[in-house]
Design the sequence.
């Protein structure tokens, strides 16, 4: 079983990485602001507070490298605080660096063993590496530390879905819905869980409710389109895909639905229409097209040249300096021992194939298996998707 990637799961913690706030709704795919006015930032020297505040501001503005360096400087000013390492761990999760995130959260927990956020972040990092048993232990610990919060429970549900423990996951989702019946993220996750087991009618019920309650929830609409399409309700699927997405994404998604339903010829037509329009994600769509052509015209597909995956463009790691002189290094202002955590480098997501989904395994070519996106944490499957930069819109490959 493949580990589930986490770039939506991370949005949950980034939305309030200092504390939990009761039944916080499960995060949207877009990165949410970190609260800058954190009371704990007033502890220690004034410079610590300033660096943490500037780090949070940089992260909210999408300047990941700047944020990381400010958190490292905060660590230098107050080596006893767990918060800089915790923040760096969250940045690594957002960049899908599970091993680096694990190291950062473990450092944070050595300083504060009772941090629910760090236990949860560590659980996510371990999930991203396929270490499901240890992940569950950390998420259970976070739940025990914050028994009134919905967030650790829903993270556990995502893990259970990734392990194909669907009944356990749905028990959590339904209990959460009893407490928050109009929470569209819970509705999306529950619908996605049914989508994963091909219970399309049940999936449509919950995803339709989520879409009606929050028409701007692109994840729910995309998953609704996947469910409707696999029921053969193509016009409704198209309308769901078109809400909140570009025409290129919608054409690609509709092609994917036809591919799942065993109609690669029609899939090819929609992929070709998508390729006729300008898009920065052309390579991923071409890959989808090649996969469909391999079924319809295997000889031609074998002769086709491979499509390279886009390479990430790294930004300088240190504000105001060149990457060659600073990236991957810690300057003299860094604390001894701060190399235990490394600053992530901001990079746009590659145009690879990977939709925002919490599904353990990809559907095989020609299989009509479903794949659904989780708002609670981006677990994803590898099932046919265009990977988008954060904030992301859902798209099936």
Sequence:
């Amino acid at each position: 079983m493949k580990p589930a990637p986490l770039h939506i799961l991370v949005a949950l913690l980034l939305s309030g990485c200092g504390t939990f706030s009761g039944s916080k709704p499960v995060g949207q795919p877009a990165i949410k602001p970190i609260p800058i006015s954190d009371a704990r930032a007033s502890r220690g020297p004034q410079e610590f507070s300033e660096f943490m505040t500037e780090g949070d501001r940089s992260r909210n503005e999408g300047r990941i490298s700047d944020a990381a360096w400010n958190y490292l400087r905060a660590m230098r000013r107050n080596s006893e605080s767990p918060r800089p390492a915790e923040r760096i761990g969250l940045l690594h999760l957002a960049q899908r660096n599970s091993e680096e995130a694990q190291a950062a959260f473990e450092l944070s927990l050595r300083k504060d063993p009772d941090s629910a956020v760090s236990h949860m972040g560590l659980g996510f990092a371990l999930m991203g590496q396929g270490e499901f048993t240890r992940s569950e232990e950390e998420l259970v610990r976070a739940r025990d530390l914050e028994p009134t919060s919905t967030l650790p429970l829903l993270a556990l549900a995502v893990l259970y879905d990734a392990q194909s423990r669907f009944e356990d996951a749905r028990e959590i989702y339904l209990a959460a819905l009893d407490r928050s019946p109009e929470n569209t993220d819970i509705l999306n996750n529950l619908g996605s869980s049914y989508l994963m087991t091909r219970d399309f009618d049940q999936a449509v019920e919950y995803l339709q409710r989520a879409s009606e309650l929050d028409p701007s929830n692109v994840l729910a609409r995309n998953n609704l389109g996947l469910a409707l399409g696999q029921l053969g309700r193509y016009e409704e699927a198209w309308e769901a895909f078109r809400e909140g997405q570009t025409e290129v994404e919608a054409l690609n998604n509709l092609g994917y639905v036809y591919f799942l339903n065993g109609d690669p010829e029609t899939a090819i037509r929609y992929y070709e229409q998508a390729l006729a329009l300008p898009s920065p994600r052309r390579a991923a769509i071409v890959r989808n097209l090649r996969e469909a052509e391999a079924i319809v015209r295997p000889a031609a597909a074998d002769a086709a040249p491979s499509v390279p995956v886009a390479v990430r463009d790294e930004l300088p790691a240190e504000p105001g300096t060149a990457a060659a002189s600073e990236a991957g290094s810690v300057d003299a202002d860094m604390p001894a021992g701060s190399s235990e955590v490394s600053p992530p480098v901001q990079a746009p997501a590659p145009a690879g194939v990977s939709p925002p989904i919490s599904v353990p395994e990809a559907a095989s070519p020609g299989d009509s298996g479903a794949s659904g996106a989780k708002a609670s944490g981006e677990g994803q499957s590898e099932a046919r998707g265009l990977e988008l930069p954060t904030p992301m819109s859902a798209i099936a490959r």
Summary: Residues 1-45, 304-339, 345-370, 376-397 have pLDDT under 50 and may be disordered.
